[in-house]
Amino acid sequence: MSARTHRRHRMIAVPAALAASALLLTACVSNEPAEEESEGDSMSEESVASSDNDAPGDPVVIGFSAPAADHGWMGAITSAAEAEAENYDDVELRVAEGTNDVNVQISQIEGFIADGVDAIVLLPFDGAALTDVAIEAMEAGIPVINVDREFSDPFAARTTVLGDNYGMGVSAGQYICGELGDQPDAVVAEIQGIASLPLTQDRSQGFADALADCGLDVDNQVSAEFTVQSGESVTANLLQAAPQIDAIWNHDDDQGVGVLQAIENAGRDEFFLVGGAGSANMMREIESGDSVVQATVIYPATQAADGIKLARLVAHEKSMSDLESSNVPRTVQLFAPVVTADNVADYLPNAFES
Amino acid sequence: MSEQQTSSNPAADTSKSAAGRRRGFSSLSGGTVRNVGLVVALLLLCLVGFLTGGERFASLTNLTIILSLASVTGVMAIGMTFVITTGGIDLSVGSVLGLTTVWASTLATQNMADQYGWIVMVGCALAVGLAAGLINGVIIAYGNVVAFIATLAMLVAARGLAELIANRRTQIVDQPSFEDTFQGDLLGVPKIVWIFALVVVAGWFLLNRTTFGRRTVAVGGNPEAARLAGIKVKRHLMYVYGLSGLTAGVAGVMLLARTGAGSSTNGLLLELDVIAAVVVGGTLLAGGRGSIVGTVIGVLIFATLTNVFIINNIDSSVQQIARGAIIVGAVLLQQRISRPSRSS
């Protein structure tokens, strides 16, 4: 059952990732002057092969709201979104103050609706809590692009850009299987983020499923709070609980700074560590080659930037012209690749500083 | 470990109670009995740890780990003991700790530390902590703002300032002289545990053996009487909150040594752990009675609890339930044990 879910995830994820990268690629090369467009009727043009998506169009106002940038990944989300909007002269981005208070975020969206923005990119602090106000926006004719944390109702968003939490666990598990699959007695430990969040449970489930594929399981599981301090203290205890470890998966590279320090304090190096999210400092550890960090699994911090891009396309009524099917897809799920010493050079330039 | 605690208690307690509300009278047994409840709780916890974890729990390494993890919270709890003894509360210590780690680890400070050694970073952390504490104190004492509100404001503001300074990024400590001074062991014991021990001794001495300590208890017991007795209550309160900020600064230095990174998320929600430890340790929230030894045992109880749970690989949600149960259980146990001695 779970194996099937996992395959289905991959089936969505791979083409979506291909499409997204193709879109980015065309964005980079399309410097030819834009053809004149028949006003407001671009869809009928059947411009499937060409890519004039980056050509300046009518000015659009995009409202952007995300939780407080209280850690590296979330900080990178907002700055990448702002940078993306800078790329377009026809986009005016209105960034609401980041907040972890769902009531404040709801009122921000109500403000966007009252202002009559052309599109809203929303990374909700809590998807379920923001669903109603997103539906309100959609009913007011404002397309909502949902990023990272899903609404509880499909009518609440025109398009959803998702990371792949389950897939992160799968990628981490498969990497560990590749390294330890021939040792059925290998000790695998897992350092979760905030255990009560659905995203954490998805990551752990994917991890357990992938490990089960090669006959491994999670022997020790602890949870931290996405902070350096909590990462350090749970790891110090974890290392004492398990005197011999073969592999550790740490869900989050922000807390990974503390995890690494605890490992150093304890003077342990008999295992290898796989990170999560993909911060620049973990990638530098991988690059150095003499660290316990052998790999990290990416959870893209650029997904809100993709949200901005898609919001602009939707507002311009353009399509993702690289796909055979016209129009922007309803769901874009990003892939969770494994970064190792072999490919770290490709990923490091775009990684976020934690 | 627990045996040492037990044996060191009676002596410590005798003097603690002597400085208590009924100073110099028959309360000698009262405090001792109160702490017996705590020691019993800690012993029970250790017994559970030993039965379930065996050697992994009862090893010297594990004792070191528990003490190290208790140290950061513990140092702040010593400052908090003074605040709560005056009948106040300091909700800002977690944020202030985060602020001090960020300030001490910023690039500018570290570059200066290249020239002047680790002293710049430590001085910076202590100064920032003390300043934040004194600001709390001035607002509470001279502005007549309730401590809960004033320190709540500092909780929010200090966290915001920390985010601003850190630019919401983790500031890695890259300063060899700092790391050499504070990381690693001294005589087989982690240096931050030594710092904790020093702060405990200093805190105990300050509360139980000095005029400052007697005034703290007097202000908490009855501020009006204290004022009539010639104590400058406002100024004293300001000092007490300054002390709490200062211990947050010390804890900041220790956390930097421990994690090697300053981050605006450092100390998030730590104020709750600190307050819980102090209250479980027998310091009255209403003021007028404070116990440094009780606070230390309170901190150790929580650190041991976390350790026992992780050693046994138990879900962290269950751990939170146990924390809640410990808070209620320890306070109930204390009341039960101390009641007969009070009525006598």
How would you summarize what this structure contains?
The complex is a heterodimer of chains A (354) and B (344). By secondary structure, chain A is of the alpha/beta class.
Write a structural description.
The complex is a heterodimer of chains A (354) and B (344). By secondary structure, chain A is an alpha/beta fold. Chain A folds into 2 domains: 60-163 and 301-318, Rossmann fold (3-Layer(aba) Sandwich); 165-297, 3-Layer(aba) Sandwich (Rossmann fold), CATH 3.40.50.2300. Chain A has helices at residues 2-29, 72-86, 102-115, 127-139, 165-180, 198-213, 228-241, 253-266, 280-288, 303-315, 344-347; strands at 60-65, 91-95, 119-122, 144-147, 159-162, 188-192, 218-223, 247-250, 272-277, 293-298, 331-333, 338-340. In chain A, the strands form 2 sheets. A 6-stranded parallel β-sheet of chain A has the order 2-1-3-4-5-11, with helices on both faces. A 6-stranded mixed β-sheet of chain A has the order 7-6-8-9-10-12, with helices on both faces. In chain A, strand 9, helix 9 and strand 10 (293-298) form a beta-alpha-beta unit. In chain A, helix 2 (72-86) packs parallel to helix 10, helix 3 runs parallel beside helix 4 (127-139) and helix 7 (228-241) crosses helix 8 (253-266). The longest helix of chain A has 28 residues, at 2-29. Mean pLDDT of chain A is 84; it is low at 1-5 and 23-49. Chain B has 344 residues and is mostly helical. Chain B has one domain (56-337): ABC transporter involved in vitamin B12 uptake, BtuC (Orthogonal Bundle). Chain B is 77% helix and 2% strand. Chain B has helices spanning 2-18, 28-53, 60-85, 93-105, 107-116, 119-141, 147-166, 176-182, 191-209, 211-221, 223-228, 233-259, 270-280, 292-311, 316-343, and strands at residues 171-172, 185-186, 189-190, 261-262. Chain B has a two-stranded antiparallel ribbon with strand order 1-4. In chain B, strands 2-3 form a two-stranded antiparallel sheet. In chain B, helix 10 crosses helix 12. Residues 1-29 of chain B have low confidence and may be disordered. The A-B interface holds A 69-72, 75, 195-196, 219-223, 225-229, 231-234, 236-238, 240-241, 243, 254, 257-258, 261, 264-265, 281, 353-354 and B 53, 56, 61-62, 65, 68-69, 163, 167-170, 172, 183, 255, 258-261, 263-268, 270, 306-307, 310-313, 315-317.
